[in-house]
Amino acid sequence: MSDSNADAERNDSPATDNHPALLDCCGGLNNVDYSKMDLTLMEAFIKHINVYDSRLCIAVIAILFNPLFWNVVARWEHRTRRLSGLFGSPYLACCCLGFVIILLNIYRSHSMTVAMKAQARWEVMERTEVFYAGIALMVFGTLLVVSSFLALGFTGTFLGDYFGILMDEKVTGFPFNITENPMYWGSTANYLGLALIGASPVGLILTAIVAVAYKVAISFEGNKRNKDVQIH
């Protein structure tokens, strides 16, 4: 009788094993043991970046300045029509601003290239597949930029709507059927591709800054209108 009672007690008691208790998912990141994380790759990445390099600082300033400049100037023109009055024509004023934007973007690309060449390459990125991935990104990015320009024209690309130069209808064909901002993301893809081709960790950082700057610019521009016309 005592043996049967003992067996019953064993059957009623919860089964125990040697497996560790599962983490409570509701605890979120508090359950993560950060001391066991392997940060070797991240540490190696950071070691290849010299944040005190003046050329890197210049590149970052150029990246942040460009979208700020064209958005501020375009909004100022939209409110005052001063540029149109100065040049005697909204078309001429728009073309002049577009020319300035092109020069600024050329300088931005130059400063980013200088910063990437000045800093160390990362052997982890010096692989054939990474190189060809960079080429593919640059081809795709160039396709987005060029096709966007052809679809919008010069004034449609360079803030013509702020000058009162409106398109007949919203462009919905390629590449705008892929993304609403092909000029921005095409440029970002180009910079990412350049960073991969050059095996440049600082290039990845600069590309991330470009993406953030464009994302802020898109939000800033979206407050002014409801995307009736794509701008660059």
How would you describe what is shown here?
It is found in: Endoplasmic reticulum membrane; Mitochondrion membrane. Pathway: Lipid metabolism; Phospholipid metabolism; phosphatidylcholine biosynthesis. Its EC number is 2.1.1.17, 2.1.1.71. There is one protein chain. This protein is mainly α. The chain has one domain. The protein contains eight helices and no strands. It is elongated. It starts with a helix and ends in a 10-residue tail after the last helix.
What is the radius of gyration? 27 Å
Order of helices and strands: HHHHHHHH
Class by alpha and beta content: mainly alpha
Task: Provide the domain count.
Answer: 1
In DSSP terms (H or I, runs of 4 or more residues), the helix count works out at: 8
Fraction of residues in H or I helices:
55-70%
Protein name: Phosphatidylethanolamine N-methyltransferase
GO cellular component, one term: endoplasmic reticulum membrane
Main location: endoplasmic reticulum
EC number: 2.1.1.17, 2.1.1.71
Helix/strand layout:
Layout: H1 2-12, H2 40-47, H3 54-80, H4 82-87, H5 90-118, H6 128-157, H7 182-197, H8 201-222
Helix pairs in contact: 3-5, 3-8, 5-8, 6-7, 7-8
